[in-house]
């Protein structure tokens, strides 16, 4: 005979599971607290991205239920964030304003309980980390549709900081307005790059009579649209929520594969190898007047079976000439023997920026 399932009975079971979860989480936090004490006495780093990644990977391969990697990541990254907060609350500066995609990326890694500081420019995030006013900073480095964030590249070589981790995040835009009828909208606020990334939506819904107004951030766009009749914003869902702006359309970006990669930076930070890492270095060729000097540097990646994932050149800003630094990223950790071979190449000057668990 088919058993009738009663919601109250199911809820009783859920309550009992939640009780057990809480008990186990409290037990976990006791252990975490002890680790925190040990770390404080040895001056060791509280944040250990490679350990967090190892836990998520292990749980993902052990998971027998319906939770996939994304769900396990969402739950456990929040648990780790609470753990770190118990061990030692650490300040995180991000490229603001509040509600920006960088803020969203910061919360994804440092959790809802983190102590966040919104700063106006990428340079001021680097400055806050460099002077150790904050322990971590988070900034965007590249978008997979629009390319590199030049402000980040420009300051990466100016400061003595390290890359601690990378955070890939889907960039999804919402169209938000207090006017339910889209035909009454006369102005749309957003950031220039967001207009570009939502070009198809804009072309489809608006003719030339609608003013597209670029502003500094999508949060500001949402703030302006919340205060003005017949206006709308293209912004993140967090920004729309912050200014109580109803979302009329979600995911209006041209490409569903629109991702931005953010970097977490810190001062004097050295990750141990996770077994699946990425390294970022800045390289200057000492013999860059000689034909083949760049080719021979790149050849050593092939010879050492190292997967080179990025090479970008940018001006060294030395005198009147045209000299370049290269931002080079590849798979591996700086302590790997074959990576040491690359970094000890006598024909290059290297600045190591960081080796960190590969997330994208
Ligand atoms: O294993 C550690 O080093 C811890 O501090 C514990 C813990 C965790 O919650 O599991 C917390 C923070 C670290 O980033 C990694 C792991």
From TrEMBL:
E.C. number:
4.2.1.51, 5.4.99.5
- Site (Essential for prephenate dehydratase activity) at 260
Q: Which GO terms describe its cellular component?
A: cytoplasm
What are the residue boundaries of the ACT domain, all occurrences included? 282-360
GO biological process, alphabetically ordered: chorismate metabolic process; L-phenylalanine biosynthetic process
The protein's location, in the record's own words, is:
Cytoplasm
Which keywords accompany this UniProt record?
Answer: Amino-acid biosynthesis, Aromatic amino acid biosynthesis, Cytoplasm, Isomerase, Lyase, Multifunctional enzyme, Phenylalanine biosynthesis
List, alphabetically, the Gene3D superfamilies matched: 3.30.70.260, Chorismate mutase, Periplasmic binding protein-like II
Q: Which InterPro entries match?
A: ACT-like_dom_sf, ACT_dom, Chor_mutase/pphenate_deHydtase, Chorismate_II_sf, CM_dom_sf, CM_II_prokaryot, G/b/e-P-prot_chorismate_mutase, Preph_deHydtase
Query: CDD domains this protein is in?
Result: ACT_CM-PDT, PBP2_PDT_1
Report whether Chloroplast shows up as a keyword of the record. Answer: no
Domain Chorismate mutase: residue ranges: 1-91
User: What pathway does this protein act in?
Assistant: Metabolic intermediate biosynthesis; prephenate biosynthesis; prephenate from chorismate: step 1/1; Amino-acid biosynthesis; L-phenylalanine biosynthesis; phenylpyruvate from prephenate: step 1/1
Catalysed reaction(s) here are: prephenate + H(+) = 3-phenylpyruvate + CO2 + H2O; chorismate = prephenate
Q: What does this protein do?
A: Catalyzes the Claisen rearrangement of chorismate to prephenate and the decarboxylation/dehydration of prephenate to phenylpyruvate.
Q: What is this protein called?
A: Bifunctional chorismate mutase/prephenate dehydratase
Q: Which organism is it from?
A: Fulvivirga sediminis
The gene that this protein is the product of is pheA
């Amino acid at each position: 005979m088919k058993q009738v399932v009663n919601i109250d009975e199911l809820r009783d079971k859920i309550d009992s599971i939640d009780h057990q979860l809480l008990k186990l989480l409290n037990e976990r936090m006791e252990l975490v607290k002890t680790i925190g004490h040990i770390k404080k006495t040895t001056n060791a780093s509280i944040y250990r991205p490679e350990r967090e990644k190892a836990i998520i990977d292990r749980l993902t391969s052990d998971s027998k239920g319906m939770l996939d990697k994304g769900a396990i990541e969402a739950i456990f990254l929040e648990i780790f964030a609470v753990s770190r907060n118990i061990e030692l609350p650490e300040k995180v500066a991000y490229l603001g304003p509040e509600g920006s995609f960088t803020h969203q990326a910061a919360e994804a890694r440092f959790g809802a309980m983190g102590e966040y500081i919104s700063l106006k420019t990428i340079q001021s995030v680097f400055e806050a980390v460099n002077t150790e006013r904050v322990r971590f900073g988070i900034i965007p480095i590249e978008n997979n549709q629009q390319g590199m964030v030049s402000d980040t590249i420009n300051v990466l070589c100016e400061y003595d900081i390290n890359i601690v981790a990378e955070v890939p995040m889907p960039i999804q835009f919402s169209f938000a307005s207090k006017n339910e009828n889209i035909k009454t909208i006369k102005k749309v606020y957003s950031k220039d790059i967001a207009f570009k990334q939502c070009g198809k939506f804009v072309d489809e819904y608006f003719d030339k009579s609608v003013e597209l107004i670029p502003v500094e951030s999508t949060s500001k766009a949402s703030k302006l649209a919340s205060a003005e009749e017949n206006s709308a914003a293209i912004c993140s869902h967090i920004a729309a929520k912050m200014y109580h702006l109803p979302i009329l359309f979600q995911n209006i970006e041209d490409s569903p594969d629109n991702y931005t990669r953010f970097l977490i930076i810190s001062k004097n930070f050295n990750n141990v190898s996770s077994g699946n890492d990425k390294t970022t270095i800045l390289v200057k060729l000492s013999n860059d007047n000689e034909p083949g000097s760049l080719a021979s540097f790149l050849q050593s990646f092939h010879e050492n079976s190292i997967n080179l994932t990025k090479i970008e050149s940018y001006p060294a800003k030395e005198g009147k000439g045209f000299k370049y630094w290269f931002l080079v990223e590849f798979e591996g950790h700086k302590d790997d023997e074959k990576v040491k071979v690359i970094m000890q190449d006598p024909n290059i000057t290297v600045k190591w920026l960081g080796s960190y668990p590969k997330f994208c």
